[in-house]
Specification:
mainly alpha; Endonuclease III, domain 1; DNA-binding
Length: 243
DNA sequence: GCCCAGGTGGGTA
DNA sequence: TACCCACATGGG
């Protein structure tokens, strides 16, 4: 039997073996700006709806900072209607381009070249950009190693017994940042795999534990009769004492 | 018809 | 600080 890896790497390895590479924004047609727009549009929204909105924006030639800065808010809202919260998100996209022109001469590249702490602080100062969106931009558009936490991450790692269900964003993020190498490619793939697991198997209701690649690691495994659940998997024991 | 989705900001106690 | 709520479309 091979040597046991760190729990977080063991989980990653299992997810990757099960789902394979997710190819999140590897070279994005629309470039970094499309990634930023996608990160804002996907807030509390299924990605399939975001794709429709992005297609509308591309067709309307609105996927550039300049075009988005110039377009009327109502027209922008109409384009992104399929992504939901369209009035709100139009306002957020406008706030971002406004910020880009006011602070960085309209150059996204200039913004994304900032060091991680400065970039994050700048992004968090923009209306409509919170920690998850900021980190998604830093990781997927700026290609800087920062771990993106989302609702799936919280749910999955709470079920695994490695985080509290109400753990604040920063605490969850610190869990990963403290125990994984700061590798952009790893963080990219890990987050995408968490989304794949949360969306397909570790669902909020009716999770498919039977088919889960983390079966055997998870105390919440619903495919195990309740009275048979005895204790936390051994590989988490020592790990938990350190987190 | 009902639930859920890759959150965030604003208001109230 | 700690909740509670608005924001909205589309797929299962």
């Amino acid at each position: 039997m091979r040597a046991m890896q760190e729990p977080l790497m063991e989980i990653y390895a299992r997810l990757f073996a099960h789902f394979g590479a997710q190819h999140w924004w590897p070279h994005s047609e629309g470039g970094a700006f499309e990634i930023v727009v996608g990160a804002i549009l996907t807030q509390n929204t299924a990605w399939a709806n975001v794709e429709k909105a992005l297609a509308n924006l591309a067709r309307a030639r609105l996927l550039t900072p300049t075009a988005m800065q110039r377009v009327a808010p109502t027209r922008l809202a109409t384009s992104i209607r399929p992504s939901g919260y369209f009035n709100l998100k139009a306002k957020r996209l406008k706030a971002f381009t406004q910020f880009l022109f006011a602070e960085h001469r309209g150059s996204l590249a200039r913004l994304l070249a900032l060091a991680t702490p400065d970039l994050r602080a700048a992004l968090l100062g923009v209306y409509g950009i919170g920690p998850e969106t900021a980190d998604a931009i830093i990781l997927y558009a700026a290609h800087q190693p920062i771990f993106v936490v989302d609702a799936y991450t919280r749910r999955i790692f709470a079920r695994l017994g490695l985080a509290r269900a109400d753990a604040p964003y920063a605490e969850l993020q610190a869990l990963f940042m403290a125990h994984l190498p700061h590798d952009e490619k790893l963080f990219n793939e890990y987050h995408a795999l968490i989304v794949a697991l949360g969306k397909n198997l570790c669902r909020k209701t009716a999770p498919r534990c039977q088919a889960c690649p983390l079966r055997g690691l998870c105390p919440a495994d619903l495919s195990i009769p309740r009275k048979r659940v005895i204790m936390r998997p051994a590989i988490f024991q020592e790990f938990r004492s350190r987190i």
